[in-house]
Amino acid sequence: EQPNILVKDQAGVRTLSINRADRLNAVNAATLLELTAELQQADADPSVRVVVLTGEGRGFCAGQDLGDVSGQGLSFTEHLHQTFNPLIRTMRGLNKPVISAVNGVAAGAGASLALAGDIRLWATSAVFVEVFSNIALIPDSGSTWFLPRLVGFNRAFELMALADKVKADEGLRLGLCEAVYPDETFRADVQAYAERLAARPANALKLTKQALNAGLNGTLDDALNLEADLQQLAGDHWEHLEGVTAFKEKRPANFTKK
Ligand code: T3D
């Protein structure tokens, strides 16, 4: 039987690819648990500096597999708490940057996965759709938190209520992604982007992500206090000395040395 998730390592970049192409990478409970476990493993593995989440074939992720509602027996609430929610929390809580590489359609909880990346890169054929209302469900897996922060309440409600498809050019305009790359070169472009990120100071990025995550929920006062604490951790780390030394020596900093 084919694995639900393909795992590839290249130059400090771990790519996790959902491998259910015949159904546009719609996910069942097993796939969600495996994906969460893979993210946790990537976090614990010192050779991994950046994680890329993508999909095989022409889909990124079509959300819940409607033909395999294997949370059978579970309530919707329990199913979300056991499958999608831990995945989204793990992505956002990961100590390493996570790139959502949206190679094709991202629908329902797949749209939430697209939004949950720290960096969102889309292929020209990417399509984003908050499809939930087509089956009279509400957006879940974090969409109600992510989307209004990006596009405001009104546009978020419109996209959710009408389930309109957002194509790549509009996704870029709306701020749903950071960059769009041609389909033909997408994987190579994502890898090149990820390698650039992998060369950045890992400890500083970890702390930056922590501060941004906290900042989205807190006050300015909270942010100033947290920055002061985290800056100590950054400043005490060897990366900081390397960055300052490299600046003075007019050479590029080497943040990947041990
Ligand atoms: O606790 C809970 O369970 C609640 C959690 C909910 C989380 C959710 O994600 S709810 C939303 C679930 N997802 C959907 O409703 C999306 C359904 N799919 C679509 O609307 C469309 O397929 C797309 C807009 C995503 C793409 O359309 P298109 O025209 O590009 O492709 P297609 O022809 O519709 O799909 C291609 C194949 O993928 C097709 O199979 P076939 O006919 O070739 O054998 C289709 O059935 C399959 N597929 C697509 N999405 C799903 C799926 N199979 C199972 N589950 C899917 N979600």
UniProtKB/TrEMBL annotation:
InterPro entries, per the entry: ClpP/crotonase-like_dom_sf, Enoyl-CoA_hydra/iso, Enoyl-CoA_hydra_C
Matching Pfam families: ECH_1 (PF00378)
Coiled-coil portions: none
Origin superkingdom: Bacteria
Family per record: Belongs to the enoyl-CoA hydratase/isomerase family.
PANTHER family for this protein: EG:BACN32G11.4 PROTEIN (PTHR43459:SF1), ENOYL-COA HYDRATASE (PTHR43459)
Annotated protein name in UniProt: Enoyl-CoA hydratase-related protein
Organism of provenance: Deinococcus antarcticus
